Amino acid sequence: MNDGSIDGGRLIGRIRELGNVGRDADGQLVRLAATAADKQGRDLFVSWLKEAGLDVAVDRVGNIFGIWSAGGWEERAPLMMGSHIDSVINAGIYDGCYGVLAALEVIQTLKSSGFQPARPIVVAAFTNEEGVRFAPDMMGSLVYAGGMDVEEALAAKGTDGAVLGEELRKIGYAGPHAPGFLTPSSYIELHVEQGPVLEREGIAIGAVENLQGISWRKVVVSGTANHAGTTPTGMRSDAGYGAARIVTYLRERALASSSPMVATVGCLALEPSAVNVIPSRATLTIDMRVPFEDRLLEEEDALDRFMDQLAEEEGLSISVERLARSKPVAFDQALVEIIERAANARGLSNRRMTSGAGHDAQMIATIAPAAMIFVPSVGGISHNPAECTHEDDLVTGVNVLLDVARILSLS
Amino acid sequence: MNDGSIDGGRLIGRIRELGNVGRDADGQLVRLAATAADKQGRDLFVSWLKEAGLDVAVDRVGNIFGIWSAGGWEERAPLMMGSHIDSVINAGIYDGCYGVLAALEVIQTLKSSGFQPARPIVVAAFTNEEGVRFAPDMMGSLVYAGGMDVEEALAAKGTDGAVLGEELRKIGYAGPHAPGFLTPSSYIELHVEQGPVLEREGIAIGAVENLQGISWRKVVVSGTANHAGTTPTGMRSDAGYGAARIVTYLRERALASSSPMVATVGCLALEPSAVNVIPSRATLTIDMRVPFEDRLLEEEDALDRFMDQLAEEEGLSISVERLARSKPVAFDQALVEIIERAANARGLSNRRMTSGAGHDAQMIATIAPAAMIFVPSVGGISHNPAECTHEDDLVTGVNVLLDVARILSLS
């Protein structure tokens, strides 16, 4: 630890230990927000915070903070690092937990090395990032950043009918602090990529400069059911063909885009669904992600125009329902540069990248300069027990976080 | 009737009366083969045959024949006309019944006009054309033409577990005659088009010169499920995109085809079917119809090559299962010309066309010269209570059949 690096063994040990908390009867990791399993995970994390000599603070929405401070908390705005420790159903052990335990590891390393930070350093674990039990996802950081009223969040009803506020009280994590009680000087979130880019390109560190805006739509294409044998091609209004054209259009747009746009049709159902009947109805979902708001708006408009033209040409009617929409997030350029410099100083290959998934960092970015660091995910797999990042890569990422934290807390 | 035309009132009245037999509790027409409802329809038809003074013969597979003959049945090969009187579930009243009752109407008209045919004239109603209760469809005519063993047909198990042979005995239509006991000199089937072509083109009579060969396939496209946000386009193996490409490919082939090819993807399902997950599997059906065997084989091969290339390009694997395959049928050119001449002689617009659906005529075509006559279907709708052909068009079609029958039985 005196060589300026973190204790990899301790880090990996904690990731594994936390990853064993919340296993169900089938051995699946299910640590949904504010459940008994989540309480077990929180208790373990808090025990480590105390063991590291940090002050523990919990806010009203259950966000947990471990604070290392020479003086009082409010002397100066703290450097904050963190992520979340709730999980999806049948989860892997890295998503979220890695960023939280990395932040703790960084603080412990700095502390034991005799480093004297010029401001408090805080590790944060935000409530209900995954959004599996309570909507919306990233709720804890959203409330913390003032994007959602705390009372509204506490009244949220879970998929199991439970109310978040009551559940937090039950597990002992309805804290006294007002969300946002600490405004960070900057926020850094280390996370597994959850995508294939770093691994495929053989790059160690992603300096995440922005986060995709997300446009979710449900599209219903209506045509006319007809006999597959007796209806000539030119006399068809084939809803399934209309849906297929939307799928191929989106691929063309994504390939032609100068920004890292992606688009996905994940659900597609035909009616009446018979081998010899032309589909009268196709219902599909579109997930479109673009990291710049003006470009995302442009793509939404272009899609609308395409579907209008398609409907006209094919004798279809197409209706669109917006399911969800979030704006892209531009992370702090100065922080991104610091991450790049830190990676370069350790001789690590690195690249700027876009986060395709949502993270707590995007919420905190509304109240403080924020950025993220990615490490490679094996096969790009996430939200799955096969989620994996090699131990070397895990340790490397935390060392970069360590160097970044040192720089950001020096002054 | 002495003006050389049929009795339109009697024809329409019988179509309506038969159409009211076999209504279920919801008023839906359901006259599945060899059910009690089918018995009612058969009994009514047979009563009309007797009323018209025809000999009634039933063969072992339940096909019913009404025979008008001066001498014994076997003096000369008979002219045969007919179709089927079983129905689909929630059927219209014209499909099949029109052709059977038209044939009876033609025979009655010729008889009462004092016409002296040079050969017997027979109206046939074939068993289980629709194939809803027992597989395969067109079973009665298939067995009649020697394409299926009668014992095998009688052993067929219905969707309700019933055995055809037993059901025919129960309803009194397990006849004594060997299927094929009459080999027709020619066979003409008048039918509603069940497609939109004649109505859209404003044409009265279709002279059907061939019948589509049908290739049914089930295709499974396998890719890799991945996060819709974090997986760049170039790193995807998107099974849904693969399926969409197959759909658009088939459209392009159908449009580019010089024959009246049609292709339909009626069923398409994605897995895991989540908004933000790239589909790992797409299961689709392909119904491809081409009226020439060499061209159908060509299209099947071209599709295989396209899917191989698609799999290669997109990192997918694609498996194909053959669900059904029937060869195209070329009807008798001389008969088609007689139909055209008959229509022209009455000043009726007409066109040659391809039947996109299967009919008993395709089975009888293997043992005798055969052809079909189509009349317009309103909106191309069939297998649906909204199935409709205007009364004028119904009568017009039977008058053409009358003229064709006169020509074919004169010598």
Question: Which labels suit this protein?
Answer:
alpha+beta; elongated; 9-stranded mixed β-sheet; about 400 residues; Alpha-Beta Plaits; 2 domains; 5-stranded antiparallel β-sheet; homodimer; 12 helices; about 35% helix
Radius of gyration of chain A: 24 Å
CATH topology of the largest domain in chain A: Aminopeptidase
How much helical structure, as a percent, in the residues of chain A?
25-40%
**Strand pairing plus helix content of chain A: what structural class?**
alpha+beta
Could you give the distance between the termini of chain A?
22 Å
Cα shape of chain A:
elongated
The major sheet of chain A is characterized as:
9 strands, mixed
State the name of the first-level CATH class of the largest domain in chain A: Alpha Beta
Tell me the domain tally of chain A: 2
Describe this structure in words.
Two copies of one chain form a homodimer. With about 400 residues, chain A is α+β, with helices and mostly antiparallel strands. Chain A has two domains: about 290 residues, Aminopeptidase (3-Layer(aba) Sandwich), CATH 3.40.630.10; about 110 residues, Alpha-Beta Plaits (2-Layer Sandwich), CATH 3.30.70.360. Chain A contains twelve helices and 16 strands. In chain A, helix 1 runs antiparallel to helix 3. The longest helix of chain A has 22 residues. Chain A is elongated, with a radius of gyration of 24 Å.
